[in-house]
Amino acid sequence: FRQFRYQEAAGPRDVWRRLRELSRRWLRPEERSKEQIMELLVLEQFLSILPEDIQSWVWVRHPESCAQAVALAESFQLARAEPGGAWEQQVTVRVKVEDVAPGDVEGPGALGVPPSPPSECPRQEAAEEE
Q1: Could you tell me the CA-to-CA distances from 23 to 2, 29, 105, 126 in Å, in that order?
Q2: Cα dihedral: 111, 115, 116, 118 (round 10)
Q3: 30-84: pLDDT as tens digits
Q4: Checking phi first, is residue 95 left (phi over 0); if not, alpha (psi -120 to 50) or beta?
Q5: Given this structure, which CATH class describes domain 34-129?
Q6: Which keywords describe this protein according to UniProt (predicted)?
Q7: What is the pLDDT of residues 85-111, one digit of tens each?
Q8: Is the whole model's pTM more than 0.70, yes or no?
């Protein structure tokens, strides 16, 4: 729905028709209540205005409600603010692909990076249970 562009249609009437069709597929008004549709719209807007780092982190966790998205965003902020927390322990390594041959690296540990860096927020489980 949001990615549709005018150039993809044959004119104003076709644009209107396609937008209605796409919005019906997204919002499914025959299956959802007005409250559920409002929740989808507010959730989308909430996610779109979050700072980019929080937005990306929350988005990949596929929140199904605004309450869940808010809890995830708050968890992200709390984990990032904790001294010595997972966010301070992560290491970023930038390598040009042509600089490393497949046999040069046996695994993530060979680069001095923990084999499984923290990818989940320590508080995510608590947010999901709410």
Answers
A1: 9, 9, 48, 33
A2: -50
A3: 999 999 999 999 999 999 999 999 999 999 999 999 999 999 999 999 998 877 6
A4: beta
A5: mainly alpha
A6: Nucleus
A7: 555 445 454 545 554 444 444 444 444
A8: no
